Amino acid sequence: MSVKHGANLFEIAREYNFKKEEILDFSSNINPLGASLKAKEALIKNIDMISIYPDPDYINLKNSISSYCSVKSENILLGSGATQFISSFIKLISPKKSLIVSPAYSEYERELKKVHSNIDKYFLRSEDDFKVDLDHFLQTIKQNNYELVVICNPNNPTGHAFTKDELEVILNWTNSFVMVDETYIEFTDTNIYSCSSLVDIYPNLFLIRGTSKFFSTPGIRLGYALTSNETIYNDLKQNLDLWNINIFASIIGEAMLSDTEYICKVKEFMKTEREYLMSNLSKINSLKIYDSKGNFILCQISSKVITARDLYNILVKDKIVIRDASSFEGLDEYFFRVCILNHKDNELLIKKLRGIFSS
């Protein structure tokens, strides 16, 4: 799988002579409601702070994250997006043998290859509805003595999610480092699925989060990592720039993480629209829909009348862009993924898909 973050709308607009704003992008998993109004207001109110340096200790931002994630502030590292910590953590521990729950974001494998890790993959399979047999997964870890286990939770692109209780069983079962990428965790019930409250307890847990997807702020490049392992924390911190986060990312982060009204609104919207999309997609006979805890839904063209690439090519002419998921290892040419947009756009997608498969 190549490193992509949804479609290149600029390229599509040029190729089809569209205006970029006209394209409905169902390929990029970003909250369509936009950023928190309180965060935007905080940015505008503090615009003159462009002329001063940020607090190098980022006390206010770390306190906001601490409260938001139920983790000690001294266990928080700040970075320019979640991907920075995938790279830096893997480089630091340089595992000789590693396991990735797959299909998965390609960056995990790419970084592990850089340190010459022997990589195994634990594939979630369509015949199991991409669910995990926890006992089998634990035995796989035990029998192979991995130094690192990589889990994206919820998994992209399948939508499967381990519960917090299941993750705690895994952490108790192994002395391996367990890197959990919670990029999409806010789209779930975090009380059930997030393991952030386990960070202060388990030193073998390295938890990564970003703000791009749920908070709709990919432009500010704010991510953070959580670990109670002092050695890991200190070694990673030594390699971070003094002012690793710009002052506006810090201001926006503080505001949006404490905007409970916004957070509740997004969660309710996503829950409602995900249920709407899953219900209506499931009624299209040619499609098999897989349960998702993320803000995206994995679909399979079970009739095999066309491929996902064919479907992409048909829809793009109507200014609708989906993700051909065959680029994920373990998925064939009949898988595609759609994210959740606003209700009107979701209705249009359903209408177009019904028309395509009914004909």
How are the SSEs ordered, and which strands pair?
Blueprint lengths: L8 H8 L7 E2 L11 H9 L13 H11 L6 E4 L2 H12 L3 E6 L3 H9 L3 E6 L10 H11 L3 E5 L11 H10 L3 E5 L8 H4 L11 E6 L12 E4 L3 H9 L8 H11 L2 H22 L5 E3 L6 E6 L6 H9 L3 E2 L1 E2 L10 E5 L3 H16 L1
Parallel strand pairs: 1-11, 3-4, 3-5, 5-6, 6-7
Antiparallel strand pairs: 2-8, 7-8, 9-10, 10-13, 12-13
Helix pairs in contact: 2-10, 3-10, 4-5, 11-13
Pfam family, one: Aminotran_1_2
Protein name: Aminotransferase class I and II
Organism: Alkalithermobacter thermoalcaliphilus JW-YL-7 = DSM 7308
Tally of helical segments: 13
CATH class of the largest domain: Alpha Beta
Helix content: 25-40%
Strand content: 15-25%
Principal-axis shape equals: globular
Examine the secondary-structure arrangement and name the CATH architecture of the largest domain.
3-Layer(aba) Sandwich
Order of the strands making up the biggest sheet: 2-8-7-6-5-3-4
Structural class: alpha/beta
CATH topology heading of the largest domain: Aspartate Aminotransferase, domain 2
- Terminal CA distance reads 31 Å
| Rg (C-alpha, Å) | 21 Å
Overall mean pLDDT stands at 95
Low-pLDDT residue intervals, each spanning 5 or more residues = none
CATH superfamily of the largest domain: Type I PLP-dependent aspartate aminotransferase-like (Major domain)
What sequence of helices (H) and strands (E) makes up the elements? HEHHEHEHEHEHEHEEHHHEEHEEEH
Largest sheet: 7 strands, mixed
Assembly category:
single chain
Say how many strands there are.
13
Domain count: the total is 2
